[in-house]
Amino acid sequence: MTRNFLGDTAVLLARSMRHVSRSVDTVITTAIMPVAMMLMFVYVFGGAIDTGTDSYVNYLLPGILLITVASGIAYTAFRLFADIKSGIFERFQSMPTARSSLLWAHVLTSLAANLISLAIVVLVALLMGFRSTAPVSAWLAVTGILLLFTLALTWVAVIPGLKAKTAEGASAFSYPLIFLPFLSSAFVPTTTMPGPVRAFAEHQPVTSIVNAIRALFTQQPVGADIWIALAWCVGILVVAYLLAMNAYRRKIA
Predict the structure, then answer these.
(1) Which pLDDT belongs to residue 141?
(2) Residue 245 class from Cβ within 10 Å (0-12 exposed, 13-18 middle, 19+ buried)?
(3) Which of 4-13, 40-49, 114-123 shows the lowest per-residue confidence on average (mean pLDDT)?
(4) Is 210:66 a contact under the CB 8 Å cutoff?
């Protein structure tokens, strides 16, 4: 059973990645908005924002990386919705394939596509002056956090991908996720925010994730932020996975 699942997932992943390779513009488009946002905040607003650091792009990058992921998973929901509408689910159900392999193929495709988009954003940030003396281990830790965050949000994306009635509805869910970093420590310190906004910002997942990544990049003590960030990511992942699988079972019943 496990061998069949892994083999079926590998075949379907190859199929999904071929679709992505034929529409590279989707990966580039995913990176364009975060890059444009980074350019605007650094070169237009950066001089007026006091973060207590010498380089605003260094402060800003962790939040931009999360926005990149939130933007990228919208395409996951769209691709899944397109497969459902094309009847591919029904065709695979009539074949001796593992039922969840199609979902996992989309999830793994999302991880690969988002990694490419994140690499593009980091490259642009380096051209804009981003610098980090963090060791390889810190970069690997940042990559791990981003992969876990991407995996969690991808399973969130699977739910509207399965339930949406239109293509627009499948991807529209990502807008609140893209907006969430604005109510966090991604762009300005939470200490500058008014009371109620500050309380929300300091107790939502993006702030702890951003703070942990920022500390790793700057070789500062991560404190409890990294454990809170991991707890948020794992919690979202578990809940989203259970809801997505329940929606999938209802869809193919």
Answers:
(1) 95
(2) middle
(3) 4-13
(4) yes
pLDDT at residue 210, as a whole number: 96
- pLDDT of 14 reads 67
Q: Do 225 and 212 meet the contact criterion of CB atoms below 8 Å apart?
A: yes
Residues contacting residue 123 through CB under 8 Å, at least 6 positions apart: none
- Cα-Cα-Cα-Cα dihedral sign, residues 51, 57, 63, 67: positive
Distance CA 169, CA 107 (A): 19
Helix 136-163 vs helix 56-86: crossing angle, to nearest 10: 30
Per-domain residue ranges of the chain: 2-252
In this structure, which long-range contacts are made by residues 103-106, counting pairs with CB atoms below 8 Å and at least 24 apart in sequence? 103/158, 103/244, 103/245, 103/248, 104/9, 104/12, 104/13, 105/9, 105/12, 105/13, 105/15, 105/16, 106/16, 106/76, 106/79, 106/80, 106/154, 106/158, 106/161
pLDDT grade, residue 187 (50/70/90)? very high
- C-beta contacts of 61-64 below 8 A and 24+ residues apart: 61/121, 61/122, 61/125, 61/130, 61/217, 62/186, 62/209, 62/210, 62/213, 62/214, 62/217, 63/181, 63/184, 63/185, 63/186, 63/187, 63/206, 63/210, 64/34, 64/37, 64/38, 64/121, 64/125, 64/186
